[in-house]
Each structure stands twice: as C-alpha cells, then as structure tokens.
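Workshop exercise sheet. Pairs work together: one partner reads the sequence aloud, the other fills in the structure field after running the prediction. Swap roles for the next sheet.
Pair: D.N. / O.F.
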Amino acid sequence: MLKLAARTARAKPSAIMVIADTAKQLKAEGKDVVNFSIGVPNFLPGEHVYQAVRDWTQHDSGGYSTNRGIPALLDAITAHFAQSGLPGYKRENVTVGIGAKQVLYNLAEALLDEGDEIVFPAPYWTSYVDIADILGARATILPCPPAQHYKLTPAQLDRALASDPKVFLFNNPSNPTGMVYSRDEVAALAEVLVKHPNTWIIADDIYNRLIFDGIGYHNFVQFKPELRTRTFIMDSLSKTYGMPGWRMGMVAGPEAGVKALVTLNSNHITCLPEVVSQAAIAALTGSQAVPTAKCGDFSRRRDDVVRALEAIPGVRCPRPQGAFYAFPDISVAFGKSHKGRKIADDLDLCKALLDEKFVAMVPGSAFGEPRSLRISYTCAPAQLKKGLERIQQFFAELA
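Structure field:
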C-alpha cells in the first residue's frame, strides 16, 4: 500500500487560518461578520514602495535572484538592524525568506534534528508547535499565565535551560498577547542565557517597530554581545510595513548558521523574487511615515480595546504594549450558558460568539493558554467598535 511520509500526519492546518476562512465564508453568505481572528495589519505601504516596483519593471531581466538575497537588499537589511539598535551585521550575517514563517522553518531545519528539544514560553504563536511537530522535535513549553502578565521569568528560563535544550525560541513583542518585555526584563533573561552556552537562541522580533508607551525595543545581544555567536534575530516586512502578501522575511545571525539557511534556500525557494526585493529595499530605506503613523494608530486602538474589555465583569486583560493583539482571560464565562448554550471552555466561547454575534476570534488554546482568546484589532474603527460592543453584549447575556 502506498503511504505518505509520517511527518504529514504530524502537520496540522493553522488554527488561525481555519477560523479566518470560516469568517470569510460567513461573510460571503451575507452575514455581518466582524473578523478579529487574523493578524494582518490592514494598511498598505507608502506610495514610494509601489513607485520603486514600477520603476524596476522598466528593466526587469526576468531572471533568478540569488539564494541569499541581492546585495542592495542585504545592505538595506543590515542598515535596518543597525537602526533597531543592532549594528555590526554584514552581508554574510543576513539572508531572506518567503516570509518570516519560512525563515523560521528553515531555522528549525538547520538547528533541530529529530528528537532535539526546543523551548519556548506559552502563550506562543501557533506555528511554533506545528513546525516542531513536523520536524519530530520535542517542544518544551513554559507556561506564563495571566497572573504574570504572560511573561517568562528568569527563574523559569534558568530551570528550562538546565537540560541544555538545542534551541530557545523567544517572541518579543508577543503574538498572541501583545506583551512587550522591558529593558530590564530582557537584560535579566540575557543574564540567564549566558550561563547556558549549549543552546541556540531564536529571537522572533517581527513586531519590533510596533511598540507603544515609550518602552522601546530591546534584544539579548544588546546586553550580552557574546550571545551574538548563537542568536538568530528574525524580522519581516509584513507587520511593520503593511506587506504580509509580499512574503519577505529576514534574519540576522552568526555567519555559519546563516550560510546553512542560504543553502536551504537554494533547495527550497531558490530565491526571493526580485520584484519583492525591490519593494523591500524601498520599504526599508525610504520614508517611515506610514509605519510610524500606524504604530500610533494601533496604540490608540489598544486603548479602546482594553477599555471595553475592562468594562466586562470578571474579564482580565493584561495591558498589551505592542503588536496589535489583546489576549484577555475570559475564563469567568466557563460553566455559564448563553441562551441555553453551555460554555465549557474557550472553544465553546469562540464558537458561540461567531454563531450568535458574528464575531470571529481565535481561542487561546491554539496558543497554549485555554483561559484566554486573541483579539486582532486591526480592522476599521467602526468595525472595531461594533465588534467590541457585541462582545460586551454576549457577556451580559451569560447566565
């Protein structure tokens, strides 16, 4: 009998995309759906990005690019990291991928053999577990509950690294919680990391330009430069520049490790399309007015979301300070009913909200925290207001 590879049985569809697709289907049926499920920024890049593409089409060769990325793009990436407080990376320290997810997959393939251990905090982005499962790695998850503002403590990290796991994966600002680690918190974790030299570090920092309240972006290598030799820092155009569909991810890291990613690119994707490369150069080196303005806009929307959630008795929402997500603890609803419909857990709650109020959200269990759910608040202000009011109505109707 013909059989597929065993890893295909371990591969699961993205929980986020399943809900987003359901919301799209309901909308196509004429339902007035408010979609808080998918993490798209819902704005477009500046006009200079499109102009750069138009100009490039006048002399398109139609050929392949390079496995690593064209030199002008590599220079734009190293300058981008330097502007983020991470100077010193050269062309040989960076490469690109078809979105940050493909970069992360390549990193996992380059660093993890079957049975190796990868450690990361929960709540986590859903694909962390999925990628580990596909590759046959062992995921050790470190619970960070609402009571500790969904943040990893140095003591937790120290205990987890005592067994010398192959990889530690860290996301700041966080998807799904929107939490941002302060300067002191990142410095304290860096102190722990230098004590455990046998573990690679992946810093998933793709929301680093979407930080509120003056906290600023901080990375381990800023505090402990010796970590640079084993730290890979991921970034992307998707969230900062409103370009998720352009599929351009990037990574900076030690030369030998990045060279392995380039080799994997040569087997996986060959290269980033040159049209995307030209758009990326324009985004990274041109006017930053659009992302700067959107960061301020998301900060104000965050305030509206938190205010609405705090008005619901029993709902707790640690205040997000980055990205464009809120992750409220909605466990007060468990054991109650909505119009005779029992709400046993986060899955029941999200399904009832979609069925009864046409509000689409992702249950927290998809992110390793079943007491919560994720709200992506990037939709238009009128839609945001409508969705928040429907959530408030739903909770008011619980019995």
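Discussion prompt: The radius of gyration is 21 Å. What would you look at next?
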